[in-house]
Design a protein that fits this description.
Layout lengths: L1 H16 L4 H16 L3 H4 L5 H15 L7 H8 L4 H17 L6 H15 L5 H12 L3 H6 L5 H26 L3 H7 L8 H4 L2 H11 L6 H7 L19 H7 L3 H10 L2 H4 L4 H8 L4 H34 L1
The structure holds zinc ion.
């Protein structure tokens, strides 16, 4: 774990000096860091792997430039990435099991057979065996476990990966649907894939777009959550009319500053008779020109929100002192 952390910080240092696309940065992570993190995971992979996932999430959030409190489903959703246990650990364990039982003359295979028989006949519990069994159960490949016969490794890995990924995506959709923080995200995010804007824009531009999409801008609807303010009381501080939601900022806010920005940065098609459908269209756009403009709009939105929040805290402190 420490070795992987050291390698990761080394990678951060290198990435800071060069600008390379996000997909290549993840390729570097998968090639340089993942093998260190998962070294020998065929043996210990059944244990708790939360620490490994933390490091993986830290890298993902660092690349996206979002807060550490950003929900996992948003972080993975923007990148179209699955957690490490699905990406690598479970696949390697299943592949290892397949190789282990393929050569009956090997000592490791004989020992495995003894272990398996002990678990069947004497009901001795082995965590490692139970974990492999659970992978087969989850992926609907029970018959492979019952047969205990080797199969084609490429096909096995493909089927297990496909089934685990499908289940993860299903679970990901459920998380968006059931989380109050996923309310806005669920409007425009309908596919689990790497967002195209991440590959087309400059780092500071894509960073602003990600922040807006992932509730990282301090709009009243988000800051009210921190102070447990009831939803209906999270009013926009710029116009003091209506809830301070993303939709309100983009299309409804009557503040002169926001209206000026809206005219300048949002295509008129979206602002005229605005509705949820148009907002979904605006946030799913791939047009580089419009995306660049939107990133400036979000930057201004961030500055407004930060200013108002500072003003609010300043007044709060003054009222306490007085
Ligand atoms: Zn407003």
């Amino acid at each position: 774990m420490d070795q992987a952390r050291k390698a990761l910080y080394c990678l951060y240092r290198k990435l800071r000096n060069i600008s390379i696309p996000i997909d290549l940065q993840f390729k570097l992570f998968d090639t340089l860091i993942l093998p260190i993190l998962t070294y020998g995971c065929e043996i210990w992979g059944y244990e708790n792997t939360k620490q490994l996932e933390k490091l993986h999430l830290q890298f993902c959030r660092n690349i996206l430039g979002v807060r550490t409190t950003t929900p996992n489903f948003m972080t993975y959703g923007e990148l179209g990435r699955t957690p490490i246990d699905i990406l690598c650990i479970k696949l390697r364990i299943v592949n290892f099991w397949n190789r282990l039982i393929s050569n009956e003359k090997k000592l490791s295979c004989i020992l495995y057979k003894i272990m398996f028989n002990l678990s069947i006949i004497d009901n001795v519990q082995f965590k490692w065996l139970n974990f492999i069994k659970s992978i087969f159960e989850k992926t609907g490949l029970n018959y492979l476990w019952n047969q205990q016969q080797p199969v084609h490794s490429v096909q096995l890995k493909f089927i297990v990966k496909q089934n685990l990924t499908d289940q993860y995506i299903q679970n990901w959709f459920n998380q968006i649907e059931n989380s109050s923080r996923g309310e806005f995200y669920g409007i425009f995010k309908n596919e689990f894939n790497l967002e195209k804007y991440l590959l087309k824009l400059l780092p500071h531009e894509r960073n602003m777009i990600t922040k807006f999409r992932c509730n990282n801008i301090k709009l009243p609807i988000e800051t009210g959550r921190w102070s447990n303010t009831p939803r209906e009381e999270r009013i926009c501080h710029l116009c003091n009319v209506g809830l301070g939601t993303e939709f309100h900022f983009l299309f409804e806010c009557t503040s002169a500053d926001v209206q000026r920005l809206r005219c300048k940065f949002i295509p008129i098609y979206y602002t005229r008779y605005a509705n949820m459908y148009k907002m979904k269209g605006l946030l799913s756009l791939c047009n580089v020109k419009v995306l660049k403009k939107l990133s400036y709009l979000y930057l201004n939105c961030k500055m407004f929100c930060n200013y108002i929040l500072r003003l609010y805290y300043f007044r709060l402190v003054i009222s306490v002192i007085m």
